[in-house]
């Protein structure tokens, strides 16, 4: 498999199907007309991923006031997402990108990683701020979880000119 080109600012997101935590079909094209944050994380119920999801969920009301939707994505199956969300009281919606030629591959964020000398394919923690036309307005790569959701909120508020009250 050849690596996909990395999606950059100004690119239009591809309309690759995802599956919501409730098992329903989800397409990014359905989100056009409204800005949204698409945050990719490696795995449900791991420390960094749990913190990131909790942070986005804690700010979900502020994102909504700014007119910006949220969507968290990993390769985990929908049932695992539902259990993860219920266990941690997450309010940011989650979607599964389990297909081998899915959205992460199309965006160039399903990458070769290394841990203790072992090579494997995995999700590069990445966040995209997408405008109402489906174009990438900002990208955060190799995200460090601490304060990340707040940084994305500030960028979203600046993009929509709707700062928090």
From TrEMBL:
The organism's place on the tree of life at top rank:
Bacteria
One of the Pfam families matching this protein, by short name: AhpC-TSA
Q: In its keyword annotation, does this UniProt entry include Disulfide bond?
A: yes
Alphabetically, the GO molecular function entries are: thioredoxin-dependent peroxiredoxin activity
Keyword entries, A-Z: Antioxidant, Disulfide bond, Oxidoreductase, Peroxidase, Redox-active center
Q: Where is the Thioredoxin domain?
A: 7-161
Annotated EC: 1.11.1.24
**Known catalytic reactions:** a hydroperoxide + [thioredoxin]-dithiol = an alcohol + [thioredoxin]-disulfide + H2O
> Is rRNA-binding included in the keywords of this UniProt record?
no
Q: What does this protein do?
A: Thiol-specific peroxidase that catalyzes the reduction of hydrogen peroxide and organic hydroperoxides to water and alcohols, respectively. Plays a role in cell protection against oxidative stress by detoxifying peroxides and as sensor of hydrogen peroxide-mediated signaling events.
**Family from the record:** Belongs to the peroxiredoxin family. BCP/PrxQ subfamily.
Q: How does it assemble?
A: Monomer.
Q: What is this protein called?
A: thioredoxin-dependent peroxiredoxin
Tell me the organism: Novosphingobium tardum
């Amino acid at each position: 498999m050849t690596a996909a080109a990395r999606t950059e600012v100004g690119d239009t997101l591809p309309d690759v199907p995802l599956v919501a935590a409730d098992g329903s079909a989800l397409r990014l094209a359905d989100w056009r007309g409204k800005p949204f944050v698409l945050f990719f994380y490696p795995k449900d119920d791991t420390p960094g991923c749990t913190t990131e999801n909790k942070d986005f969920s804690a700010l979900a009301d502020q994102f909504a006031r700014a007119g910006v939707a949220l969507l968290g994505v990993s390769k985990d199956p929908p049932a695992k997402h539902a259990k993860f969300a219920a266990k941690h009281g997450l309010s940011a919606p989650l979607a599964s990108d389990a297909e081998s030629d899915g959205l992460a591959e199309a965006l160039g964020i399903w990458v070769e990683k290394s841990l203790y000398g072992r090579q494997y394919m995995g999700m590069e923690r990445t966040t995209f701020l997408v405008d109402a036309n489906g174009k990438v307005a900002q990208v955060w790569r190799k995200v460090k979880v601490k304060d990340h959701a707040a940084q994305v909120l500030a960028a979203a508020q600046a993009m929509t000119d709707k700062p928090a009250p």
